[in-house]
Design a protein that fits this description.
Order of helices and strands: HH
Distance between the termini: 118 Å
Number of domains: 1
Structural class: mainly alpha
Number of helices: 2
Oligomer: single chain
Shape: rod-shaped
Number of strands: 0
Largest sheet: none
Strand content: under 5%
Length: about 180
């Protein structure tokens, strides 16, 4: 992407070039007009006794040259204004393009970050689900082991109690048998 500051400098440089060209045209035009007027003045001094018509003709020529120079200056200013307007439009368009590009890049960066965040979220959810399943499986296994252990102890306790009962019954019958004889 082109840096907006560099684009602005480029447009500013183009505008300065246009202004310099216009200033040169204006200076040339203004410099040319006094030369023509000076030539007429020099000719007037050389011939002091010219007829009035000739002097008037020279004055008209000088005035026409002055008017032409003034018209050229006005044209130069108009041309300058048009070139500045074009340069401004170019700069405005470049700034708009730079803005659009920056917005586009920002949107792409946001989309990429959102995709990364969504993937991280999905990975975290998946990892949490695996951890939950593992903990659940361990809890189920632990519960089953405890239930089996309790069942084994109960069966052992019942077997021990049955054995004790059997021994007690046998002992009681043996006592009864001794007593009844």
């Amino acid at each position: 992407m082109v840096n907006p500051k560099e684009k602005a400098k480029k447009v500013s440089g183009e505008t300065e070039e246009v202004v310099e060209e216009i200033e040169e045209v204006v200076e040339e035009t203004v410099e040319a007009a006094p030369e023509e007027v000076e030539q007429v003045s020099a000719e007037e001094e050389a011939a002091p006794s010219r007829p009035l018509e000739e002097v008037l003709g020279q004055a008209e020529k000088a005035y026409a040259a002055f008017m032409e120079a003034q018209r050229q200056v006005a044209n130069a200013y108009r041309t300058n204004e048009q070139q500045i307007a074009k340069a401004y439009k170019r700069a405005e368009q470049q700034a708009e393009n730079a803005h659009d590009e920056a917005v586009k890049e920002a949107m792409q960066a946001r989309d990429e970050m959102m995709a990364t965040a969504l993937k991280a979220h999905d990975d975290a959810v998946s990892q949490a689900e695996r951890a939950f399943k593992k903990a659940k499986d361990q809890a189920e296994k632990g519960c089953e082991e405890r239930v089996e252990s309790a069942k084994r102890r109960r069966e052992e306790a019942l077997a021990g109690a049955w054995q004790l009962r059997e021994e007690t019954v046998v002992q009681a019958w043996s006592i009864y048998a001794k007593l009844s004889r």
